[in-house]
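User: My collaborator sent over this chain with a note saying "see what the structure looks like." That's all I know about it. Can you take a look?
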Amino acid sequence: MSAPHAPAGPDPDSLLDILEDTMTPEPEVRVTRYDVSCLPSDDINVHAYTLTVEWRGGDIWAVMDGPFALNADGVKDYEPRPSSRDDEWLATHRFDLDTALKIAKKAAPLMTVNGLPVAGALAMTEARRG
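Assistant: Without extra context I'll predict from the sequence alone. Here is the result:
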């Protein structure tokens, strides 16, 4: 006795075509993060020397170094979980996009990773490239 087979349904490809033609809205594309670094994008250490400017909804952006948010002076502060962020903290760590990018551009050249400043990382890159 053979096992019953499920009835053949419509071709999945034709269903996708129908859905795309009739129901699928145009995708929305939005920028939600900018990377800011003094190291070239192909540098092996660029990830460690990169600040990010991240969208937080509306016209609000944060300047981040991993789990740390920078304030207007470029000072890092651990970003608490959302339920622990009070209005005072948010006021000092959230910005409009232009301000956030200015803060990140000002702070990026001052980054130090494991005691090595940006200038040292750039010198190492040049030495490797010969």
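A starting point for your reply to your collaborator: Helices lie at 12-22, 87-93, 97-107, 118-129.
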